[in-house]
Amino acid sequence: MQMLHIASQLTYLAVAANFGSIFTVLLCCAAIILFIRQFRLYEFEPTLSSVVQVKQPAHEQLLTKVNLPFSLEIGKLDSNDSGIYHLTLYSTSYFPCLFVVCREMPSDKVKNLINEPWQKFLEVFRSEMKMFPNLQIYAEEEIHQLKPFSVTGALDCMPRTTYALVIFHIRTDVEYITDEDPVAVITLIHTPDRYCNAPATFLCQYLKCSDGRVLNLKPLYSPEKTRITHKEDLKQSHLINQGNTNCVICWNFPANHVLLPCRHACLCVNCFKRVENCPVCRTRVISFFTV
Predict the structure, then answer these.
(1) Domains of the chain: which residue ranges?
(2) Average pLDDT of the chain?
(3) Which of 91, 158, 166, 283 is buried most deeply by CB count within 10 Å?
(4) Which keywords annotate this record (predicted)?
């Protein structure tokens, strides 16, 4: 009987030891989980601070969609030893328009002209063309798509108070223009010279509406798109966007959220809810709009 009693006590101790081991393992797992949560909460804060960080969600900007009546793309740029460049521009117009190029236009005159009322703005190109000596009309009353225009100018100018090229797309079907319609697009272009060797590129674009509004057009950036230039054939020497426009995180849904201020169009509606910084450039997302 004594041996059976000792055996039962040993069995009880063995079972208790097993339960103790299991309890110890569970206690260690709980401690690790709490440590990880606390570690992620402070996010590598080196010292304690009395400053309380309040995370503000990005707010949506409600924008009005505008259909652009014109578009412009920069093509091939050639230059020679005599200091002359030849720049090819590809214009697309969905309405009858004036395609006007002005070289070395003073910046103050550009600003004043852009802010003129629509009728006076149109009259400048109808009757007062002598006020801009380097202004030239390349096309009038024409609907075209990716039509090439060759612009020639000097390389050794000093474009600090003037813009090298100012391109005007101006609607001429005045009888069909209604209130708030976009009527002109003004494009400022930089061309390389002996003072600045940066390639030919857009500086900025302005959209002028018939009611007097002037909107500053800014590009959207999609990291999946690549720009391919075909240099062999002049008719195909325009810039083409190709690539996947899906979300950069899930790759399943279209990227319809544009993040501000970085302007990366890279997230779908589901992934946007789970990020605070742009996944492309790591900029803090202040606001956004959908496209």
Answers:
(1) 1-54, 70-217, 242-290
(2) 78
(3) 166
(4) Membrane, Metal-binding, Transmembrane, Transmembrane helix, Zinc, Zinc-finger
